[in-house]
Amino acid sequence: MGPFRTLYLDMNSFFASVEQQLDPTIRGRPVAITAMENEKGCCVAASYEAKAFGIKTGTSVPDARRLCPGIVFLPSRHRLYVRYNLRVAAVLDRFAELERIRSVDEFQLGLSGEATTLPGARDLVTSLKAAVAAEVGACLRFSAGIGPNHLLAKIAGKLEKPDGCQWLGPENMPDRIAHLALDDLPGISRNMRARLEAAGITTMTRLCQLDPRHARAIWRSVEGERFVRSLQGEHIPLIDTQRGGYGNSKVLAPAFRRPQEAYMVSRWLIEKATARLRRDGRTAARFTLHLSPMGAASIAGAIKCAPSQDTLTFMRINRGLWRAAWPKIRHMKLAMIGVNLTEVEMLTNRSGDLLRPLRPGELSRAERASKAADFINARFGAGTISLGLNQPHPGFFERG
Predict the structure, then answer these.
(1) Which domain of life does this protein belong to (predicted)?
(2) CA 332, CA 146: separation in Å to the nearest integer?
């Protein structure tokens, strides 16, 4: 049996568990983490005590209160959860190779030595559970998955929750997951499930037995072949993908739903996105604005431009797109807005411009000004200097 190469850890009800760890008075009680501090919000996480009442991600606050009258609602504090994520990561990394922090509540570890055997991997999981409980908090528990690759380990980690430990490999596949629906697997959306069913792949067993070359045709990508080979137990390492864009979107609070206020929020989103663009040494050549009016179809507009990392360049494009949309939205309220910078490339790959003049890979005067603003904000705090008026709208996920 084996060798096993990957251990996947999925923290159980992580956001709610962190809050329970910090506040002993709510331990053992149903807790829901909300995105907004009012009755119009929804639950973004729930403790297992709350899940027992049918509360899950996306349940509205009124419905959660109806299902569980004694539930405790707390606003999300994403930065706090990130700090706990790093504390857990530091513990894990002492025991095994922490290959990837896959999300705020999921970790991927590489196995070696005795831990590549099933008994050794299980002993490692026992040690990790004890160390996290002792050093981070007894409320912080996780489910563990053991597998020959990251995909099978991740699927195994979902099989026994909470606080479980399961394994998958050629020896127990596909029987061990035959009860799952196709779109229960990570990476298979409803659309991909429909595409598989159209190709005659309707069960988990058929999917696991699929010829990888056929999978490539169904997916219309090499990712289909990689996915099926991983299901069949091959060691298929993750590929680092090149970032395709920078963006921010925001579900608007009631105070910012009028187009006038929403426009100012969009300027703030652009400042955030372009700062990340500059941090990574990249430029973008396409800007897209997304507007979602309440009770009406979404509106999107995009404009191409010369590759740039200058905030004001994208501010001007944004203003033009808002003006174009204004006749439709001026009397409406907006539920959500989003900005995206795409067609991204490295600044060092940008060709020069004889008319400006600008050498290849050189920053323009406006880009240097934007970079100076980044330096000041990093030194003295976000928002110390901004390029024009904007309306910060951080929300609960960006709280500390």
Answers:
(1) Bacteria
(2) 51
- Tell me the mean pLDDT in the region 308-315: 95
Distances, alpha carbon 391 to alpha carbons 29, 116, 130, 272, 381, in Å: 37, 52, 45, 12, 16
| Parallel, antiparallel or unpaired: strands 6-11 and 106-110 | antiparallel
For residue 221, how many C-alpha atoms fall within 13 Å in the half-sphere facing its CB? Answer: 6
Cα–Cα separations (whole angstroms), residue 87 to 10, 165, 330, 340: 15, 21, 47, 32
Q: Read off the pLDDT band of 31 (50, 70, 90).
A: very high
Would you please indicate which residues are annotated as catalytic (active-site) residues?
Answer: 106
CA distances from residue 89 to 13, 264, 275 in whole angstroms, order as listed: 17, 38, 27
Is residue 1 scored above 80 in pLDDT?
no
SS3 166: strand
Angle, in degrees to the nearest 10, between helices 259-279 and 365-380: 90
Helices 14-22 + 78-95 axis angle, to 10: 100
- Check: CB of residue 38 under 8 Å from CB of residue 189: no
Segment among 216-220, 226-230, 246-250, 301-305 with least mean pLDDT: 246-250
- Strands 72-75, 31-34: pairing kind: parallel
- Look up residue 40 and give its DSSP letter: T
Q: 9-23, 26-40, 321-335: which range is least confident on average?
A: 26-40
Query: For residue 51, which amino acid is it?
Result: K
End-to-end CA distance of the chain: 45
- pTM for the model stands at 0.67
Q: Name the token pair of 41.
A: 């919000």
Asked if residue 255 has pLDDT above 80, the reply is yes
Residues 6+ apart with CB under 8 A from 30: 46, 47, 49, 50, 52, 53, 55, 68, 70, 71, 72
> Given the structure tokens 């996920």, which residue do they identify?
397
SS3 category, 382: coil
pLDDT tens digits along 321-338: 999 999 999 999 998 899
